[in-house]
Inverse folding.
């Protein structure tokens, strides 16, 4: 029998979650407006893992994401402190409401923390972007992915590789729904409303620049490593400007560095529409983010990833991404990027802007047997 009402908790905590959850909310609203059955009720829960204007609020404003129903106010801290704050906060927030499904996205601390709380309370867990694996256990995100997926009931996946990983780990095919990429839904839905940042004409000499982002602990938490990366990139780029929106984690470390990088333009983390604007007009991107490799692949912008592994191999196989495990090997690739010799992106299956619609359609067809005793 079809349920008449479906209750969801939607969890968002850190910057890369917001553009993944936004399209799901839109698709739920459309489903309800078209009198879809079951009617879907939801609460948007912001864990507060990221909390300031640049890392959180600007994304809500620019992507028209409704004000969260609840903010757990977790704030900064060590991995354990942050996890504990989110878990105790979410457990309290469950209260009387008790959703049928808790939807978590991505691989941040909030994803793992809320999935544990939900599953222990007998609530089904759906993981959007489930199944991706870097195999690198030194990344907190890999631990978050493994823990979350080990207790997930419904996997909404972005790639063939993710499907294979889940099957290999013993998950049932029937739990896995290959829907595409909600981050790409956001990208494609906003390409016609990008915003040029205020500093653009003043600080950049035309469109001949690279974009750099760095925030992975493995690249930024060690002064020497961070300094080596910045020096190599600044030297390799020569007279090409490098626009560097600096993540707060990285900024703290850079304050202690002596270096002056003449061709680097340091700015605060950019709001979504401005960040995509600068990337889409750049020669190429150097990054250690996973999400950015997806966005550059879809926009056919060359991308170098400064990491030893990626959980998104499709961005190398079909997209514009090249992995550089050793920073010493980056300069010739940066030169190649600047000279315009780069592979062309191919279409990645289902990355066409309809992932969130597929997720909501699938959710509305599930028959949910509660684990609650
Ligand atoms: C987190 C995610 C990472 C994601 C990244 C995007 C985990 C384990 N990591 O890493 O997967 O790619 O977000 O940004 O969940 N800070 C601020 N303002 C904020 C938020 C944080 O200044 O709004 C500062 C904190 O005080 C902290 C630092 O930034 O010192 C790092 O924040 P944290 O949430 O611990 O992890 P990220 O490195 O951002």
């Amino acid at each position: 029998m079809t349920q008449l009402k479906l209750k969801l908790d939607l969890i968002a905590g850190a910057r890369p979650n917001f553009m993944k959850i936004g399209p799901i909310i839109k698709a739920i609203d459309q489903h309800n407006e078209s009198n879809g059955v079951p009617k879907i009720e939801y609460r948007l829960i912001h864990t507060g893992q990221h909390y300031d204007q640049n890392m959180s609020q600007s994304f809500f404003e620019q992507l028209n994401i409704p004000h969260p129903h609840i903010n757990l106010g977790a704030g900064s801290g060590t991995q354990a402190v942050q996890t504990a704050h989110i878990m105790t906060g979410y457990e309290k927030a469950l209260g009387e409401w008790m959703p049928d499904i808790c939807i978590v996205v991505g691989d941040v601390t909030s994803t793992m923390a809320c999935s544990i709380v939900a599953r222990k309370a007998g609530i089904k867990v759906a993981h959007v972007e489930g199944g991706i694996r870097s195999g690198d256990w030194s990344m907190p995100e890999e631990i978050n992915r493994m823990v979350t997926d080990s207790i997930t009931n419904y996997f909404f996946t972005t790639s063939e590789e993710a499907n294979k990983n889940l099957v290999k780990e013993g998950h049932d095919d029937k739990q896995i729904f290959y829907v595409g990429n909600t981050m790409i839904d956001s990208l494609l839905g906003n390409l016609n409303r990008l915003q040029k940042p205020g500093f653009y004409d003043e600080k950049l000499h035309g469109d001949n620049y690279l974009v750099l982002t760095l925030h992975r602990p493995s690249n930024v938490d060690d002064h020497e490593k961070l300094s080596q990366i910045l020096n190599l990139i600044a030297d390799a780029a020569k007279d090409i400007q490098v626009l560097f929106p600096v993540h707060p984690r990285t900024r703290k470390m850079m304050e202690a560095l002596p270096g002056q990088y003449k061709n680097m333009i340091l700015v605060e983390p950019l709001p979504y529409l401005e960040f995509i604007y600068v990337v889409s007009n750049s020669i190429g991107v150097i990054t250690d983010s996973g999400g950015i490799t997806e966005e550059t692949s879809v926009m056919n912008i060359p991308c170098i990833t400064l990491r030893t592994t990626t959980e998104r191999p499709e961005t190398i196989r079909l997209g514009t991404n090249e992995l550089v495990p050793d920073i010493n090997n980056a300069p010739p690739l940066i030169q190649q990027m600047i000279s315009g010799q780069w592979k062309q992106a191919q279409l990645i299956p289902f990355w066409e802007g309809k992932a969130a619609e597929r997720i909501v359609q699938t959710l509305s067809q599930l028959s949910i047997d509660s684990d609650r005793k």
Summary: Residues 14-16, 49-52, 55-56, 76, 107-109, 140-141, 215, 247-249 surround uridine-diphosphate-N-acetylglucosamine (CB under 6 Å). The mean pLDDT is 96. The chain has 16 helices and 13 strands.
